[in-house]
Amino acid sequence: MTELLIHKQAQVEALSSEKATLLFRIEAVSRMLDESKSRIEISGSSSRDKESGRPLFEDRIRSSRSQKCL
Description:
The chain has one domain (2-69).
C-alpha cells in the first residue's frame, strides 16, 4: 500500500508540474494575443485616417514641430 501511495503522489506532482507549465504557456499566448489586438487596432486607425484624408498621428507631430521651429 505504501508503494501505491508513493506512485500516486508522484503522479500528482507530475500533473501539478504539467499544469503550471500549461498555465505559463496560456499566459504567454494571451499576452501575444493582446499585443496583436493592439497592433491591429493601431493599424486600423491609421488606415481609417488615410481613407478619411486626415493626416496620420506622426504627420501631425511633424507638422506641429515644424510650426514651432518657424
